[in-house]
Amino acid sequence: VIQLGFVPATAYLFNHFSIAAFFLNIPVIILAGYIIPLGILLIFLSYVGGFLFDFLAFFTELLLQIMIYINTLIGQLAFSSINVISPSFSVLFLSYTILFFLSSEVFWISVRRRSYRRIIRVILFFIVIATFIPLIMYEDLVKPDIVFVDVGQGDCMHIRTPSGKNVLIDGGGKTDYDVGKNILMPYLLKNKVPKIDLALVTHLHDDHYRGIASLCNLMTVEKLGIYEANRLKQDDILQETGLDLDNLVYLNKGDRIKVDDDVWIDVIYPPSYSKEEYKEILNEDENEYSLIMKVYFKDISILNTGDLGFEGEEKIIEMYYDYKDNILKADILKVGHHGSRYSTSDIFLDIVKPKVAVIQVGNNNFGHPHTDVIDKLEKRDIMVFRNDLGRCNFNAY
How would CATH label the architecture of 145-394? Predict the structure, then answer.
């Protein structure tokens, strides 16, 4: 019963449900029933010593080793624990009120008197109250929004649509730290995200791709979108992500992804090339061939530039120079390459004309974001948000 009482709180605070705990309780309680009194007895016998002390100490240590072995054995089973999304306050309220009621004297008196209607009325009363909690606590509702997730020195953009679909653009990552397990997974579970409908990776550098690759092994990712040049790395990608070939989507300029009624994503760069040219691209600086995507989220438009630098910006400007409509114009600009001094040129800013700029940056030795970039943005009265200074999220509803 005590273990059952911990389940809702553990799920809410740690997004974790231990199935093994229910099986472990019985042997652990039995063993603890011997270990605790033996431990107390050994305290007093330690002043005397002798054979009896040595024997009981050996026996107590043996029981402890058995307990640890059982715990380790069951804990290693695949089904020993599962990750769960944070339950709502309604579920927490309902769980604990019903649990307390079932443990109360009122419940057992009602059972003895066979007053089952009374029991049902009380439980229905709790259910009615629980249904009104989301109306009182608005934050308990899942809201459509765009969040630039703080993954340290890396990029990650989370889009939640009005119908509840979830899209990630990049996922940060490091070689010596599992961002997918330690940052993305807890963030998504805490925000009630059971799966990722679409993950898009601008390019395969660690600080954009490795977190997504890790997440694919931890959570259901329906589709993974990457630049077409990465067909040449297909086997490595499938091995790293654990996905099937059907889960991969190859993208290039001109592709449109319809996510929801008011949400879609246009790929505006890079274009398609030959296989030989793709080999050259992957051997060069992948930053300049980042997937550049324009996100339309109801009345908001966001231009995500990956790690694009001056060279890539010039190519895009030249590519769309003769277009009647300014395709590059956006309300929000995800600044290229974490605010590097070699990205975000004056002419690029004048064409995009953003009202808001987001710089995804963490502790680094590269001087990101560079003061030149900040000066360019402030000179144009563009509002700047930085992940190293706080959370960045936008709501169009």
Answer: 4-Layer Sandwich (3.60)
